[in-house]
Design goal:
The complex is a heterodimer of chains A (312) and B (268).
Chain A: H1 2-15, E1 19-23, H2 32-37, E2 42-44, H3 49-61, E3 65-71, H4 80-88, E4 95-99, H5 117-122, E5 128-130, H6 135-147, E6 152-155, E7 177-180, E8 194-198, H7 203-213, E9 219-221, E10 224-225, H8 230-237, E11 242-250, H9 255-266, E12 271-277, H10 288-291, H11 293-308
Parallel strand pairs in A: 1-2, 1-3, 3-4, 4-6, 5-6, 8-9, 8-11, 11-12
Antiparallel strand pairs in A: 5-10, 7-9
Chain B: H1 2-23, H2 28-33, H3 35-43, E1 60-63, H4 69-79, H5 84-87, H6 118-131, E2 138-143, H7 150-161, E3 167-173, H8 182-186, H9 191-197, E4 201-206, H10 210-222, E5 227-232, H11 255-267
Parallel strand pairs in B: 1-2, 2-3, 3-5, 4-5
Helix pairs in contact in B: 1-3, 1-4, 1-11, 3-4
Chain lengths: 312, 268
């Protein structure tokens, strides 16, 4: 995903001199393609996230297009007040780009686990949350933002994620994008009663699990969401009676909570089953594939329960 | 310059006093502290060019110590960016003239209130001016207590590293903050040496001498490095019973005190 970001920036920066990439000294061996071609528009602010956000805000107030980059927690929590007051309140079109979503840097410890970032960012009223499932969605999200400048939080995983997305689709705020079953694989009618909504890279594993144990359940990704799209999103999901949400984030303030809030806004009695990290994730240090096992296990349990009851 | 700026400073002080009295608001001491600086800036287009709030060629004036907003609002009113009747909505429910600097007010570049934000934004603006090959200047007004915010030192390093000579900071050094003096709270001394060691060109100025302010601002603007002006001021300047007093960081004048204060302002 991070390479898709850099490739998009390189492509776009050739024709648009407004584009500036700021990093708080992270992105070694990733950001160089931009740095080498657009040295004056590549700003390494050093290990100083508060200043990075302030500088980006200043650039944006003058009509430029800044993108900030760092690992999950650092350009969000460390400089939360700058994002709140300077970017979001002033509605500046800065994209806060993070890598290492969830527990992607699992072995590096709690300091590097981005598992509360969605809670922070989605409480900001003008902030669009972008949670791509694959590199293609990264590109589509950036295209969307380019045409619709606004404060945005772009939550990236790392690299090497498989492509899940259907290229012909464009994105929009609050849209749900069907990931499974794929159009070409559609040999049955997916359920309109039950669905799974997943954000981020975990969608790939979720799709495989659904295909093996509950193939009639459709899986959707939600690439662009947040407070600005809540009502539109609520309209999109009101058709379902049961929704399972999956995220590599804690429940409190995360995507599952967002879905529950949206359901509440529509005044429906849809059942929401959130699959997310519990408080016991804090302090667990292991590889990502180990740490996300609990998410997939819990999802499997819920899908099996649904299969034996409402889905027959 | 000086004659009109003196008149402007009196009007800024009068309006600031009327505003905090009307709204029963705080921070009049901080506002009076920078009244002379703002008077010189809005009276001297050759120093700070402010033809209109959205004019692309304007110099960018950022008030990081957003709690002193009544002085900025009053200065912009004196400049003619809005009518006094609009200004007097200050403190009313839903007025754009809120009790910390608001970007909804014509001429206010950014909203501030939390300290330690505007210098980084000013750095971004200075980088933007350079990228766009535009020759406007960015001024950022900070408080002395605000220099305790770590973010300012991040920004100071940044401006020096990128040699943002189109950026000037003015630090309002009245040596009073929330509880007591800056020296007793958390000393920032020796501020000149600290700023110099961060790569800034440092200038000291008497913040209540319009002549000195004018020449030092011109000097700072012409400097080939980012310039920091340490502006020595008296908190509450111009009103005897408010000067050098922590309590006027919080209190607003009664009607009797307001009349007395305005009389003092115009007798000097």
């Amino acid at each position: 995903m991070r390479n898709a970001l850099v490739q998009w920036l390189v492509d776009k920066a050739q024709s648009d001199k407004r584009i500036h990439l700021l990093t708080a000294d992270l992105g070694y061996s990733v950001l160089e393609p931009f740095q080498q071609r657009f040295g004056k528009r590549f700003i390494n602010v050093g290990v100083a996230e508060q200043n990075m956000v302030g500088v980006a805000s200043g650039l944006a107030t003058e009509g430029l297009r800044p993108y900030t980059y760092s690992i999950g927690i650092f350009p969000t929590f460390r400089c939360a007040e700058q994002i709140r007051n300077d970017i979001d309140y002033h509605r500046l079109p800065v994209i806060t780009c993070t890598v290492g979503s969830g527990v992607a840097y699992g072995n590096l410890g709690y300091s590097h686990h981005a598992i509360q970032d969605l809670s922070l960012m989605r409480s900001l009223p003008n902030m669009v949350i972008a949670t791509p499932t694959d590199p293609f969605q990264v590109t589509k999200i950036l295209d969307w933002h380019y045409q619709n400048p606004c404060p945005m939080y772009l939550r990236l995983h790392k690299n090497g994620e498989p492509s899940l997305f259907f290229p012909e689709k464009s994105l929009d705020l609050g849209e749900i994008i069907q990931i499974y079953p794929g159009v070409k694989k559609l040999d049955h009618t997916p359920s309109h009663k039950v669905c799974v909504l997943a954000v981020g890279f975990i969608a790939d594993s979720v799709a495989k699990l659904i295909a093996s144990i509950a193939p009639s359940v459709p899986l959707y990704s939600v690439p662009l969401w947040g407070r600005p799209s809540q009502k539109r999103f609520a309209e999109k999901i009101k058709q379902f009676e049961t929704i399972i949400t999956v995220e590599d984030h804690v429940l409190e303030g995360g995507f599952g909570s967002y879905v529950m809030e949206a359901i509440s806004i529509c005044g429906r009695d849809t059942r929401v089953i959130p699959i997310s990290f519990g408080a016991d994730i804090v302090g667990k240090v292991a590889q990502e594939k180990t740490l996300v096992t609990s998410l997939l296990f819990n999802l499997q349990e819920e899908l099996l329960k649904l299969s034996s009851t409402c889905m027959g | 310059m000086t004659g009109s700026s003196i008149e402007a400073s009196r009007k800024i002080r009068e309006l600031s006093l009327r505003l905090v009295h009307k709204a029963n608001a705080s921070h009049i001491g901080s506002a009076l502290s920078i009244a002379d600086l703002l008077a010189v800036l809005v009276s001297s287009p050759e120093i700070c060019n402010l033809p209109a709030p959205q004019d692309p060629s304007r110099d960018r004036l950022l008030l990081s110590k957003g709690h002193a907003c009544v002085a900025l609002y009053s200065a912009l009113c004196v400049k003619g960016f809005f009518h006094e009747s609009e200004l007097m909505t200050y403190g009313d429910d839903f007025s754009p003239f809120m009790n910390h600097a608001s970007h909804h007010v014509p001429g206010v570049e950014i909203s501030t209130g939390a300290l330690g934000h505007a210098l980084s934004i000013g750095c971004g603006k200075a980088v933007a001016a350079r990228a766009k090959k535009e020759d406007w200047h960015t001024f950022v007004i900070l408080s002395d207590g605000e220099m305790q915010e770590g973010s300012n030192w991040e920004a100071l390093m940044f401006a020096s590293h990128y040699n943002l000579s189109n950026l000037t900071v003015i630090i309002d050094y009245n040596n009073l903050q929330s509880f007591t003096s800056v020296d007793k709270t958390l000393s920032i001394s020796p501020l000149d040496q600290r700023l110099s060691s961060f790569g800034w060109y440092v200038i000291q100025v008497d913040g209540h001498s319009h002549k000195d302010l004018y020449s030092k601002l011109a000097q700072a603007k012409a400097e080939s490095k980012p310039a920091a002006i340490i502006m020595h001021t008296t908190k509450g300047k111009g009103v005897s019973f408010m000067e050098n007093s922590v309590e006027w960081h919080y209190k607003s004048p009664t009607s009797i005190q307001l009349d007395q204060a305005i009389a003092e302002v115009y007798s000097q």
